[in-house]
Design a protein that fits this description.
The protein has eleven helices and no strands. It is mostly helical.
């Protein structure tokens, strides 16, 4: 790719990042570092939702090279190549609309990368001046390294032609990036205003374990959901609660869950049988029962603690909506809007489960070192 194209793409990333950076800089917030973290978490959530929209509209190969579009910085410049590809295959992977969807997704991702670099720079700068825990640069550095890995998988998603395991890992890394930002934001919140200690340490420890288990089962379910989406197995079971008129239909687990293979192919290069897609869908659908029980129990337990009640209610509400959109996606024959909402619901579950984990962790730490009837000093950003 020509250096001028890379320069134009870098400018686009800076332009996208300049908008939230300006908003944070001009805001009345005393702690702009914390505000930037939460703005980045919000934008990462948006990126995940738009990434789902990109995948669901079959726009992942709207620009079949990376990081540009036919070697250009935007689809306007690559118009001739896109028009030629669209003329050959009007409903194929490359169209003008799909090219813009894919490039907007990339521009947003580049903007978040620039924001992470800005956060890392600010962390080092403030840490050198104050040595406050709030500005420890370890997490921003980890975020920077993580987003570089995520970018590599974004490139491989295109260059390996939507290979399911690569696309699924790309999704999981996006969810992990969101979790890391939410965790960092939570740390900033609690360093600025620590929670009040509680007396029931045993109950808090058991809730801590339950919250961790909830995080694990949620990761597994998102991986299974990503596997359904990247293999286009959403309508392999087009009824609910039965699948092909049976509780346990005919399934091919061996080929369905072979990880390293081309899209729509077996590892040997043969076309994937429909029974393999049924297996992929059926496992995701039934594991949702385990997820519902574990996350529902975590939400119920959290609602029993005053300082966690709001998070517990939020987790329970998002879980119910996610169950509804999952069933509705099948029942209404995969409408795009509901499918995007289902993807957004998965990201919201990651957000709320992460919030629950960090809140329980810090609440437990404060309660263990401070008597419940003592005043907790505020660790301000002095």
């Amino acid at each position: 790719m020509h250096p001028s194209t890379l320069f134009q793409l870098a400018l686009m990333g800076l332009l996208v990042a300049s908008i939230p950076l300006t908003m944070v800089w001009l805001s009345s917030s005393v702690n702009k570092y914390r505000k930037l973290v939460w703005v980045m978490a919000f934008l990462t959530f948006d990126l995940i939702v738009f990434g789902g929209f990109t995948r669901l509209t079959d726009s992942g190969l709207g620009c079949p090279d990376w990081p540009g579009c036919y070697g250009a910085a935007n689809p306007f410049i690559a118009h001739e190549h896109i028009a030629a590809a669209e003329a050959l295959m009007p409903t194929g992977p490359v169209t003008k609309v799909k090219a813009w969807i894919e490039m907007i997704h990339r521009y947003l991702a580049m903007g978040i990368g620039v924001l992470i670099m800005a956060l890392m720079f600010q962390a080092f700068r403030q840490w050198k001046k104050t040595k406050l825990d709030a500005f420890k640069p370890a997490m921003p550095v980890a975020l920077f390294l993580f987003v570089c890995v995520q970018g590599a998988f974004g490139a491989w998603t295109v260059t390996l032609k939507l290979q399911p395991v690569i696309v699924t890992i790309h999704l999981l890394l996006g969810m992990a990036l969101l979790a890391m930002l939410v965790w960092l934001g939570g740390r900033e919140d609690y360093l600025m205003k620590p929670p009040s200690p509680v007396r029931d340490l045993a109950g808090l420890r058991s809730l801590r374990t339950l919250a961790l288990v909830a995080a694990v089962v949620l990761v597994v379910q998102i991986a299974l959901g990503g596997w359904v989406s990247t293999n286009y197995a959403t309508l392999a079971c087009d009824e609910f609660p039965l699948c092909d008129g049976k509780l346990v239909p005919e399934m091919d687990f061996e080929h369905g869950f072979t990880l390293w293979r081309e899209l729509g192919k077996t590892a040997a290069g043969h076309y994937l049988q429909f029974s393999a897609l049924v297996a992929i869908h059926w496992v995701h659908r039934n594991f949702a029962i385990i997820v519902t029980v574990v996350l529902g129990l975590a939400a119920w337990r959290a609602m029993g603690e005053a300082q966690l009640r709001k998070t517990g209610k939020m987790l329970g509400a998002v879980l119910l909506v996610q169950l509804f959109t999952g069933v509705a996606t099948v029942y209404f024959d995969f409408p795009l809007a509901i499918a995007v909402l289902h993807n957004a619901g998965a990201a919201l579950l990651v957000l709320t489960v992460t919030m629950l984990n960090y809140k329980v962790k810090y609440l437990l730490e404060v309660s263990q070192r401070t008597p419940a009837n003592a005043d907790v000093p505020v660790n301000s950003y002095r």
